[in-house]
Amino acid sequence: MLSMIIHLFYLIFSYSRKAKLLLKKKRYQEQLLDKTDNQLDNLDRLVQDIEFSQVEMQVVEGLKVGNDCLKKMHQMMSIEDVERIMEETQEGIEYQREIDELLAGSLTDEDEDAILAELEAITQQTDDVQLPDVPADKLPHIEGKALKQNLSSIVHILVATEKVVNSCF
Q1: Per residue in 46-100, pLDDT tens?
Q2: Do residues 58 and 104 both lie within one domain?
Q3: What is the DSSP code (8-state) at residue 129?
Q4: 95 with 162, same domain?
Q5: Which of 22, 40, 66 is the last residue of a domain?
Q6: Does pTM surpass 0.70?
Q7: Rounded (10°) CA dihedral 101, 102, 107, 112
Q8: Where are the beta strands (DSSP E) in 47-164?
Q9: Do residues 162 and 84 share a domain?
Q10: Is residue 30 situated within a structural domain?
Q11: Which domain holds residue 101?
């Protein structure tokens, strides 16, 4: 019986050593899994940082291209040209306003009296004059010289701008 008891103690001791060894192995594998998870998290953050850096680089490149295009456009169009076009446009707007005011009937009573007096004077002078018949053909439409120059300048600038923009891309 003593040998059985010794044998039983031996088995218990050997199982506890094995159990201890298995617990150590389990703890080591858990630590290894934690380290691997941390490394994967670091890799994910690294990939995200790289992708964000690529987006930032694309933004910077886009800004460079836009800046170059603006520089080329500024070389083609001077401040004097823009001021001249703006003045011509303002003159055209003022002229159109005068026409609109005349057509809208916003003349004062004095203006209307002066116009009627001038019309009366003209009609009295032409009573004795024999006027020719009005032709039936349509007259060609002719625009004012300032308007033509203004439109020509605008078209020139638009064409130049389009060339610059196309050369940037």
Answers
A1: 999 999 999 999 999 999 988 888 888 888 888 888 888 888 888 888 888 888 7
A2: no
A3: S
A4: yes
A5: 66
A6: no
A7: 180
A8: none
A9: yes
A10: yes
A11: 77-120+146-169
